[in-house]
């Protein structure tokens, strides 16, 4: 036998390859489609701020190319504390902050610390499809709580409260939500936190889309006195269109931060040094960029909702935040896969809804964080295909 294969046989597989996200298959089909408008990506396709890029170039030229401390430089941690104060009116101590390799590493560290095999984890449906494999691989029993759909999608307290019990270790709340743009109210968050504390349940508050808010206020889990059982995940990826920098952060109780820091030493050692230096200088000056990005996304979102709702058989709720619409195509084409292919043939890529849960059947996620010209062209193509 070929000796290479003999050696390979000694490896115990850690996952089934079929667990790979259906987005892989989609990407392959997208690569084969010329002149495609990509509204499938989970990222803004407008540019990062030139000033931020200049800061990064300067940081590289001035030797900021080495490891930083594991938790992040003192400069970036205090810049984040001030940023959160300005953006959300919350007081956070730099000791409560750990810089991570994107929000992804923050989520991995938090779930690794909290979940023991057999613990129950509550996830939203529809919700970001990646959370299920992350938590299941750690041995969690996953239960879903439904988001509710009216004119917009909402994160209601009741379905979560009903599912909290002593086995429930962790609840993931993602507001504004990927893929629905649902947000949570202050009253709902307060009720969930109160019951969660009584049952020893942690909340993982994923706030990576906090800048993209179109109605109401962003309710951060940090605005409650609850750091004993709350871990907040945030990231620069979506906020500043720098997904490739892989720079995120987590805010939690100092004990949790110390645990995560020691664990992180053996995974990534530290986060992207150049990005930390560039961001520390840029954060106090970023407001115009944040406003422009949000205003562009609001205009695109309103146009997309209006034009999609005008197509017979399409129902598009109004997202309260985030960078995606999540329309219901059940009266037009119940098969998400056929719908995906139909839109792909028209030259637009979207993500089929079932990736986001049972409630995603017959839905699709369509990203609107792009130039107005791209959104107009994408809508023209979708209208032509769906009205045909
Ligand atoms: C809800 C949500 N949380 C976290 C992330 C992680 O993003 P990143 O690792 O780029 O910060 C994503 C990315 O799509 C997301 O949609």
Task: Report what the structure shows.
The protein is α/β, with parallel strands linked by helices. The protein has 2 domains: 3-48 and 288-387, Aspartate Aminotransferase, domain 1; 64-285, Type I PLP-dependent aspartate aminotransferase-like (Major domain) (Aspartate Aminotransferase, domain 2). Helix content is 39%, strand content 14%. It is built from 13 helices and 14 strands. The strands form 4 sheets. It has a 7-stranded mixed β-sheet, sandwiched between helices. Strand 7, helix 8 and strand 8 form a beta-alpha-beta unit. Helix 3 (50-61) crosses helix 10 (273-282) and helix 7 packs parallel to helix 8 (186-198). The longest helix is centred in the C-terminal third of the chain and has 23 residues, at 287-309. The chain is globular, with a radius of gyration of 21 Å. It starts with a helix and ends with a helix. The model has no long low-confidence stretch (mean pLDDT 95). The structure holds pyridoxal-5'-phosphate.
């Amino acid at each position: 036998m070929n000796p290479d294969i003999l050696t390979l046989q000694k490896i115990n597989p850690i996952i089934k390859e079929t667990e790979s996200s259906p987005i892989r298959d989609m990407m392959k089909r997208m690569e084969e489609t010329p002149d495609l408008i990509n509204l499938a990506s989970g990222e803004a396709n407008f540019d990062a701020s030139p000033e931020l890029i200049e800061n990064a170039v300067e940081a590289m030229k001035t030797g900021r190319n080495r490891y930083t401390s594991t938790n992040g430089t003192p400069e970036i941690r205090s810049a984040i504390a001030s940023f959160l104060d300005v953006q959300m009116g919350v007081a956070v101590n730099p000791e409560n902050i750990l810089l991570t390799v994107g929000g992804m590493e923050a989520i991995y560290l938090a779930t690794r610390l909290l979940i023991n095999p057999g613990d129950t984890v509550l996830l939203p449906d529809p919700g970001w499809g990646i959370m299920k494999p992350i938590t299941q691989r750690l041995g969690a029993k996953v239960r879903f709580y439904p988001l509710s759909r009216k004119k917009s999608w909402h994160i209601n307290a009741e379905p979560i409260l009903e599912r909290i019990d002593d086995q429930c270790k962790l609840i993931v709340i993602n507001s504004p939500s990927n893929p629905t743009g649902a947000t949570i109210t202050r009253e709902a968050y307060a009720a969930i936190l109160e019951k969660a504390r009584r049952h020893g349940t942690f909340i993982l508050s994923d706030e990576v889309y906090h800048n993209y808010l179109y109605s109401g206020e962003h309710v951060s889990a940090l605005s409650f006195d609850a750091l004993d059982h709350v871990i907040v995940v945030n990231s620069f990826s979506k906020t500043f269109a720098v997904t490739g920098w892989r720079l995120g952060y987590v805010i939690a109780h100092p004990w949790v931060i110390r645990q995560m820091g020691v664990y992180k030493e053996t995974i990534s050692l530290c986060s992207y040094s150049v990005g930390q230096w560039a961001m520390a200088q840029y954060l106090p000056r970023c407001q115009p960029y944040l406003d422009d990005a949000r205003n562009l996304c609001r205009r695109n979102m309103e146009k997309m909702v209006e034009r999609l709702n005008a197509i017979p058989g399409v129902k598009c709720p109004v997202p309260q935040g985030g960078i995606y619409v999540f329309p219901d195509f059940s009266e037009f084409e119940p098969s998400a896969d056929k719908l995906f292919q139909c839109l792909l043939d028209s030259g637009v890529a979207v993500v089929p809804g079932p990736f986001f849960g049972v409630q995603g059947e017959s839905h699709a996620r369509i990203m609107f964080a792009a130039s107005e010209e791209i959104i107009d062209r994408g809508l023209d193509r979708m209208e032509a295909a769906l009205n045909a």
